[in-house]
Amino acid sequence: MRFTKPRDLRSIPSATGGIARLACVRMREAGKDITSVLSGAGLTIAEVNDPAVRLEVRTQIKVLELAAQDLQDEFLGLHLARGFDLREIGLLYYVMASSEQLADSLRNAERYSVMNNEGIRLRFRSDAATVITLEYLNVDRLSDRHQVEFWLTTIVRLCRQLTNNRLAPRQMTLRHFRDGAPAEYKSFLAGDIEFGADADEIVFPKHFASLPIVGADTHLNKLLRRYADEALARRPQERNSVRANVERAIPELLPHGKATISEVARQLGFSCRTLSRALLAEGVTFTKILEELRAALARRYLRDRELPISEIAWLLGYREIGSFTHAFKRWTGTSPSQFRSSRTPPARK
244 and 223, same structural domain? Predict the structure, then answer.
């Protein structure tokens, strides 16, 4: 049996899925069947058609990669970013568009971009130059080309549209490799671009940060930032909670049958009683966390068709497949094999 290290559920980032949906629109326009791409990424058409459904960032990356292959478009991220209405970004766009100066707009993007994509953190600084950096969180950066190229291209478009100025970056750097800078990139950016660099960055001259935003509206911006702050406050704060620490510890202990409150408390430096009280203060119990985490991990593992169900049972701490099957039916009303068949159709030959 191949044993796989459990993934940390608490840190699996999600996104609105807008980029993946743009890719699906592009495929449909090209007369392509999106079903095979979606099944290859573990998605259904219903999920993609519902804009309220958030997608895992890893799933979005997979959709873009598969769509690029089907479309034979090596620069899909660039093409998608150049062709969509920036207002589709949603609240984040309007907060940026009502800011006073480009620096204010970028600071707002730094604060609120997590609402759109939890797997990417935008950083902004203005010292010797105006620098915008993208950092990947809990996502393998080197697995991605199209999403990061989409975001960097979109940021350049935003800076140009919001200032009504065709700003040219002094330099753009990307961590992944390409064989030289394509002519399309040079034409769009009108600046230097470097692949295989140490960071994903856009560098503008310093004075660009003080450029005014053409749609600046102080009162509207204040109102929109209040809405955005409320949206941020509603997001789960698991990474700073006791529950998050418990969820981080459990997956490593499950395969060895040690996912008990006493062992988790020991690892976190609590007594059992103190841990129980801390969790109750957050409105949850250890037993509830364990049950919900097992159910969520089971669904996630079953999306990976390479993982045998016997191994998934082991990863979740079940000694017998029958025990896992019984629990999974209780959680979902269906068996693990039926769930896998309905969610991840066989891959194309």
Answer: no
